[in-house]
Predict the structure.
Amino acid sequence: MSGTQQPAVCPRSWAADRPGGPPPRRRDALRNRELLVEAARDAFTAEGLHTSLDRIARRAGVGSATLYRHFPNREALVDEVYSSTLTDIITAGDRALAVQSAWTGLTNYLYAVFAALPTERGAGCPAGPWPGGATTLELIHVQHRRTVNALLRQGQRQGTIRPDATGEDLLFATAVLGRALPALLTTAPTAWRRPLALLLDGLRTHPAASRLPTPSLTTDELDKVLLPAR
Amino acid sequence: MSGTQQPAVCPRSWAADRPGGPPPRRRDALRNRELLVEAARDAFTAEGLHTSLDRIARRAGVGSATLYRHFPNREALVDEVYSSTLTDIITAGDRALAVQSAWTGLTNYLYAVFAALPTERGAGCPAGPWPGGATTLELIHVQHRRTVNALLRQGQRQGTIRPDATGEDLLFATAVLGRALPALLTTAPTAWRRPLALLLDGLRTHPAASRLPTPSLTTDELDKVLLPAR
Amino acid sequence: MSGTQQPAVCPRSWAADRPGGPPPRRRDALRNRELLVEAARDAFTAEGLHTSLDRIARRAGVGSATLYRHFPNREALVDEVYSSTLTDIITAGDRALAVQSAWTGLTNYLYAVFAALPTERGAGCPAGPWPGGATTLELIHVQHRRTVNALLRQGQRQGTIRPDATGEDLLFATAVLGRALPALLTTAPTAWRRPLALLLDGLRTHPAASRLPTPSLTTDELDKVLLPAR
Amino acid sequence: MSGTQQPAVCPRSWAADRPGGPPPRRRDALRNRELLVEAARDAFTAEGLHTSLDRIARRAGVGSATLYRHFPNREALVDEVYSSTLTDIITAGDRALAVQSAWTGLTNYLYAVFAALPTERGAGCPAGPWPGGATTLELIHVQHRRTVNALLRQGQRQGTIRPDATGEDLLFATAVLGRALPALLTTAPTAWRRPLALLLDGLRTHPAASRLPTPSLTTDELDKVLLPAR
DNA sequence: TATGAATGAGGCTTCATTCAT
DNA sequence: TATGAATGAAGCCTCATTCAT
C-alpha cells in the first residue's frame, strides 16, 4: 500500500536514526518490541482486542512486565499494532479522492482498505468493539468516515450512487464486514471481496453487468469461518 | 409449514409431558428454569455470549448452583435460549419456500429472520463467536442454510437472482450482519434493514427502483453502535 | 467500653435475629466473616491499613475470593473492622460531654478513646494514613473532632485549659499518638498513657501536682517499639 | 562540640580522600551518587521509606542498576540519606549538653533536632517504620537517646524537669512526633512546634506562663495532614 | 562502568465451577 | 432440592532485583 513512511501518521515509530529523538534503543529491546507487536497483531486478529496481555507476552516469549515496559497499557499496544494500517488507509483515501469518478474512487478505496487490514504485513483487523483510548483506531475511523462521506456525496452528485444511501449506511456496512475479517484470515483471506461487491452493486444507480470477484466460499470454508471459533 | 413442534430440533426442551423423559419437575423448578432462560436471553443479548454466569443467575434471582443444576454448562444454556428462535426460523423458512416468487420469498424470509432475532420473545442474537458445542446455534445455521440455498437456486432459475451468487455468499453476508445486531439493539433496533436492503439489491438481476427502508442511522447513532464498547 | 450495642452506629452487623433484614447467613459463612475480620484487625494493627488483602485471606484461612465476597473492597473491610471502635468513641464522647468539669471530661474521654483502640475486643488502630472511602474511619474522625472541640472550648471557658491551645492542637497530637499504638500493642499496650498524661499536663492552666500513670517504658521496650518493625 | 566529621558515625560515606578505602571514584560516579542521595531524600520525605527504587533512580536521572551499584540495597540508601542528619543531631546534642540550664539545653536541642529533619539540606524524615537493618537511623536514635537522657537527668537534678519523667517517655514522644513530620511538610512545615511545646510544658516542674509558638493548624490544614493519604 | 531492559514474584480482582447446608 | 458460599485459576499490573550491552 503506502510505500513511503509518512511521519505524520506514525506517532510511535521511534526509528533509531532520528537525531534529536530519544537515544537509539538497544538491539534486543527493539527485537522484543517487534516480537510483542507481532504477537499482539496475531492475537488481536485471532482472538479480538481483549485477549489476555499475559498471553500476548507469552506468545512473544517475554515476561509480562516486559510488555508493560514497552506499552504502558493495552491501548498503547493496540495503537502501535494498527498504526501502519492507519497510514495505508489515509493514503488510499487521498488517492481515491483524487480520482475523477467517485464511483471508481470509492470502489478502489474500499478494496484497498480491506486489503490493508488482514494481511501479514498490514495490521490485522480488530475483532469486535475496541477498548477506549486506542487513539489510532479512532483516527482510522475518523479518516475512513471522512473519505467515505466525501466519495459518497460526490458519487451522488455524479449520479452513480443511489441518492437514498447515506454515509452511515456505508460506514456501518463496511464496519460490520470488517469485523468478520479475522475469521476469514486463515481460511479464505480474500473472501470479503464478494460481499463487498454485492454491497457496492446494491449501492449504485445503474448497475452495469458486474461479475462477482474471487471464487465463492465453499460450504466447508463457510463452516470453518462461521462455526465456533476455537 | 411446520407449524407443529419438531422434536428433532428441540434437543433439550424437557417438556413436562414427555413420557419417556426425566420425571416431571416440580413447579418451582420449572419456574426457575424459565427465569434462568429469560435472564440468560437478556444477558446474552446485552452483553454477549460470554457474560458471567453468576450474573445471569443473580438476574434470574436464583443461586448460581441452581443454574448449573438446570444447565450443566454454558452451552446447554445457550442452546436453550436459542431454541425458540430455531422454531421461528424454521417456520419462516417453510413459509418462504411455499411462495411462488423465490425473490419475494427470500426477501420476506430474511426480514423475518432478522426480525425474529432481537426481540423479547425471540432470542436475541449471539454477539461474536460462540462457545464450542452449542448445538442449537448449529441447527439454526443448518436450517437457515437449507432455506437460503433453496430460495437462491429457485430465484436463479426464475431469473431474478444474479447467477454468479452462491448460497455461501448470502449465508456469510447474513451471518456477518447478524453479528452486528446486539450493538444495534439499544440504539436503533431496525437499522439492519438498510444494509440488508442494499445487499438484496446487489443480489438481484434487474434491480427495480427500490427504496431503502427505515431512516438511516444518524452519525451519532453510528458512533454509539461502532465506537468503543462502553 | 460501651456495654450495650447501639444499633444506630453499627451499620453492618446484620444480626441473624433481625426479622425484616436479609435472611440469616449460613453458619460457616458467618464464621468465615468473623475470621476475616479478626485477621484483618490483626493485620491492620500489625502492618498498617495497606497490607495485602491476599495475606489477610490466608491469615484467615480462606481463599482470597471469599474475602471479596464478604467485602467488595478494602474500604468495606476497614469499615467493618473499625465499626465497633466508632461505637465506643461516640459513647465515650457523649459521656464526657455530660460531665460538669470539662477538664475531667476531656481526660476521661481521651483515656477512653485510647483504651478503645488497640485491644483485642476493640478494633486495633490504623497504622498510618488510611485509604480513601473508609467511611467508618472518617466518622470516627468527625466524632472525635466534635467531642474534642466541645470539651476544649468548655474547659477554656471554665479556666482549666490554656487559652492558646486549639482543637487542632489536640486533634493533631492525639492522632499522632494514636498512630503509634500498633507498635505498642505487643510490647507495652498501655504505654500511651504516659505521653498522653504529659500532653494533658502541658495543656492545663494550673497544673496540679500530677503523677504520670503506669510505669515508664524500659529501654528495651522502647527499642522494640521504635526499631525496625519486623 | 563535634564540629569535625566523626568517622564512627559515617559508616558509608566513602569520601574520595580516605586512604584505606575503595579507590577514588570517577567524577561522574560521584555526581551520580549525589544525585541519587538527593532524589532519595526527596522521595523518602515525600512518599515514605518504601517508595519505588525505580522512581528514585528516574528522579535522579540514572538507571536503576546504577542505584544498585552505589547502594546494594534499600537500607544502604536510607543510611546514606540520613547520615547528614546524624551529624546535625550530634552537633546539636553536644551544644545542648554544654549549656548551664538543662531545661534550656533540652528545649533548644529538641527544636534543633526537629528543625534539622525536614529541610533540604537536612534529611527529611522517614515516614513509618523503616526496613530492617538501617544502621544510620539506629545511630541517630542512639545519639538522640544519649543526649536526651543526659539532659533529662541533669534537669531533674536542677529541679526543672518533673522527677517522674523518664528518658523513655521523652524519646518515645519525640519519635512519635517525628513520624508525623512528612505529613506536615507540604502543608505546615513548622506545625510540630506546638505539640512539642505542649509536651515540654507538660514536662517541666514549674511551668512558667509559656506561650505556644507558631499559629495553630487550621481545620483545613489538619484535614490535609490527617485525612486519607491521596 | 553505567545503562536500559528483563524478569519473576506478588498484590488485586473476577469468574467458572464445586461444595456444604 | 436449591442455595449461598468457597475456591483456584487466571488476568491485570507494579516492583525489587538481576542481566546483557
